[in-house]
């Protein structure tokens, strides 16, 4: 099948999950992770307005360049690294076949609120 690629998502415990992803459904990595019940919240629904789908790109299958909205969100996020991307901004295309990403740590919302006090 030409419209299926394989990507690897390493969860927060370090366990790799090899996922098959359709390229003909206009999905992104956040949606793919959610469809496999991986712990990605995607609170904003893919609008680049939260960082609950942040992941680290572990290889060169997707560019590290970010659009303006994604960069603004990552500027405010926790646990950001040079290779951080928002999963909702990584489109599932044939070009990312073989992509390896690692899920960023989750921010505990209660701890986050305490940081603002």
Would you kindly provide a written description of the structure presented here, covering whatever features stand out?
- The termini are far apart.
- It is globular and about 40 Å long.
- Mean pLDDT is 92; it is low at 111-117.
- The protein has one domain (4-115): Beta-grasp domain (Ubiquitin-like (UB roll), Roll).
- A five-stranded mixed beta sheet has the order 2-1-5-3-4, covered by helices on one side.
- With 117 residues, the chain is of the alpha+beta class.
- It has helices at 29-35, 68-76, 109-115; strands at residues 4-10, 16-22, 54-57, 84-86, 100-103.
- Helices cover 20% and strands 21% of the residues.
- 26% of the residues are buried.
Query: What is the CATH class designation?
Result: Alpha Beta
What is the total domain count? 1
Largest sheet: 5 strands, mixed
Order of helices and strands: EEHEHEEH
Low-confidence stretches: 111-117
| Major β-sheet strand ordering | 2-1-5-3-4
| Beta strands, count | 5
* Beta-strand residue percentage: 15-25%
Cα separation of the termini: 53 Å
Q: Indicate the multimeric state.
A: single chain
Number of contiguous helices: 3
Q: Determine the fraction of residues in helical runs and give it as a percent range.
A: 10-25%
CATH superfamily: Beta-grasp domain
- Give the overall average pLDDT: 92
Q: Specify the structural class.
A: alpha+beta
Which geometry do the CA atoms define? globular
- Named CATH topology: Ubiquitin-like (UB roll)
Question: From the coordinates shown, what is the CATH architecture?
Answer: Roll
Q: What gyration radius follows from the Cα positions, in whole Å?
A: 14 Å
């Amino acid at each position: 099948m030409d419209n299926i690629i394989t990507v690897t998502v390493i969860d927060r415990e370090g366990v790799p999950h090899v996922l098959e992803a359709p390229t003909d459904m206009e999905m992104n990595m956040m949606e793919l992770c959610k469809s496999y019940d991986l712990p990605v919240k995607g609170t904003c629904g893919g609008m680049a307005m939260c960082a609950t789908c942040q992941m680290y790109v572990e290889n060169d299958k997707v560019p590290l360049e970010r659009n303006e909205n994604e960069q603004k969100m990552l500027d405010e996020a926790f646990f950001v690294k040079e290779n951080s991307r928002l999963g909702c901004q990584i489109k599932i295309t044939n070009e990312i076949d073989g992509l390896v990403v690692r899920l960023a740590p989750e921010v505990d919302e209660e701890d986050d609120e305490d940081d603002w006090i």
